[in-house]
Amino acid sequence: MVELLGTRASVAVVEGRARGETDVVVAAFDRLSADAVAALREVAAELGKPIVLVTDLIEEGGLAAAVACRVVAILPRSAMTDSRVADSVRVAASGTVSPPSALLGRLTEHAERLNREQLAPSAPAGSVLSSREIEVLRLMADGFDTQEIATELSYSERTVKNVIYAVTDRLRLRNRSHAVAYAIREGVI
Predict the structure, then answer these.
(1) What is the signed CA dihedral for 11, 17, 20, 21, rounded to 10 degrees?
(2) Cβ pair 85, 75 in contact under 8 A
(3) What homologous superfamily is domain 2-119 in, according to CATH?
(4) What's the pLDDT at 136?
(5) Which CATH number fits domain 125-185: 1.10.645.10, 3.40.50.1820, 1.10.10.10, 3.40.50.720?
(6) If you count DSSP H runs as helices and E runs as strands, how many of each does the chain have, helices first?
(7) What is the DSSP-derived secondary structure letter of residue 73?
(8) Which regions of the chain carry the CATH code 3.40.50.2300?
(9) Which residue from 173, 155, 144 is spatially nearest to 183, judged by alpha carbons?
(10) 92: how many CB neighbours lie within 10 A of its CB?
(11) pLDDT tens track, the chain, 189 positions
């Protein structure tokens, strides 16, 4: 990155002790992982300067974290050129930059998805589960396996497995034990 930017007369590369004189930080990562976000947070806290991020892969939640760390431009590493990075640095240094519309669109989608999945009020468990699902959960809590549940309720094993899958998938539960614990906690069984 230093060699790439060093070829541009309009950009002065500052390293080491002169970091306080920095107008813009250029950060390059193969992927924007949790470790990369932690590094961005540290730089943002220390310098408080806009950041131009060069990366090819942004992990879930990384986009919002990057914007929170003052990332004002994201460039794909695979399509990076000295002029593209230098132009982004100049715009970021001017102080007139705002997040690009595509970035804002992705952030909006991310926020809407979080709202739907995590923040939306959930209905009481009893109203979310059918009587068939409640009966299967009750038998699972009593220690019945799939075949025993099928025999007890006169269902096929495939039907019992489908009911269990539907409950765990719809309620975002990890496994059968989690489903039983959820039903007990919610007072359904």
Answers:
(1) -30
(2) yes
(3) Response regulator (3.40.50.2300)
(4) 96
(5) 1.10.10.10
(6) 10, 5
(7) E
(8) 2-119
(9) 173
(10) 22
(11) 566 555 555 555 666 545 556 788 888 888 888 888 888 888 888 888 888 888 877 776 777 788 788 888 887 876 666 677 777 777 777 776 555 556 656 666 656 665 555 544 455 555 688 999 999 999 999 999 999 999 999 999 999 999 999 999 988 899 999 999 999 988 888
- In the chain the beta strands, taken as DSSP E runs, fall at 25-28, 31-32, 51-55, 57-58, 71-76
Report how far residue 56's alpha carbon sits from residue 76's, in angstroms, rounded to the nearest whole number: 5
The whole-number pLDDT of residue 142 equals 95
How many CB atoms are located within 10 Å of the residue 71 CB? 25
How far apart, in whole angstroms, are the C-alpha atoms of residue 160 and residue 149? 7
Enumerate the CATH 1.10.10.10 domain ranges in the chain, comma separated: 125-185
Contacts of 22 (CB under 8 A, 6+ apart): 14, 47, 49
What's the token pair of residue 6?
């060093």
